[in-house]
Amino acid sequence: MYENIPDKLTNIIVTGKSGAGKQPRIDVLVDEFDLEQLSTGNIFRSYLGKFNDHGYSGDIGRFWQGKSFVRDDEIADVLGTDDPDIILGLKAKFFVDRGLFVPDHITNELFKGSFAKRDHRGQVLDGYPRTLDQAKFLMELLEEEDSRVDFILRVDNDDEMIVERTVNRRICPDCGKVYHLVYKPPHEGKCEVCDVEVVQRSDDTEEKIRSRLKEFKEKVIPAMKYLEERGIPIAKVPGHLEKFTPENVRKSVLSSVNKVF
Ligand SMILES: [Zn+2]
């Protein structure tokens, strides 16, 4: 039925606006093609965790010179370790703690380290690349490692639908169960499992969603366009399905993937 799809895939990129519905599609790809999900969020958590576990309690701002960090061996001297993962974790934490955009060269290094640990193969890339510079870095890395990306899966969804879905989202602070004020309202505002009041995540305000949508248009779309020009095909799937069932999600993903081969 999906006869065009090769038996063995190397890597896939999944992209789409924040809130478009990427995760259920990633689940299908991971399942069908025996891949692992490599998400930027987890990469950051992992490196920050390594730095935190090292237990340095001093001010990390001391390593920042206004435009760049001091040399790695100077950082290593103060930290008492030259483990590159811990030093990278420190650099990432500097920006994350200050709520700043993490520069591409740091995100690229974090990605490169994690991708290498998995042999540059068998991954569904989630949240990377997000800028043109990251896309260029990825293409060079793939070439060096004699690896490839088979296709990009783009989950499409309408801005207004995403805004409506996100601002009405409520989450149980205890178990993480997700509610929607209109489609899946919590009974008397409380989680049905834990009986505690559900909350709105601080990222789920309209202002923040619109700023993420804008970032997608300005940064992610040019990155994907660059990859497409370099010969990586894009399979498009709808983020909204009339009947959202696991089987319908699977069919919609596989039939669009089938078309790009
Ligand atoms: Zn709960």
Summarize the structure in words:
The chain has 261 residues and is an alpha/beta fold. It has a single domain (11-156, 215-260), classed as Rossmann fold. The protein is built from 9 helices and 7 strands, in the order E-H-E-H-H-H-H-E-H-E-H-E-E-H-E-H. The chain has helices at 22-33, 40-54, 72-79, 84-97, 104-117, 132-144, 159-167, 206-229, 246-260, and strands spanning 11-16, 36-39, 123-126, 151-156, 169-171, 178-180, 234-238. A 5-stranded parallel sheet has the order 2-3-1-4-7, sandwiched between helices. A hairpin with a 6-residue loop joins strand 5 (169-171) and strand 6. Helix 1 (22-33) packs across helix 9 (246-260), helix 2 (40-54) packs across helix 4 (84-97) and helix 7 (159-167) packs across helix 8 (206-229). It binds zinc ion (ZN). Zinc ion is lined by residues 172, 174-175, 177, 191, 193-194.
Comma- or semicolon-separated keywords:
globular; single chain; 7 strands; two-stranded antiparallel ribbon; Rossmann fold; 5-stranded parallel beta sheet; alpha/beta; binds zinc ion; 261 residues
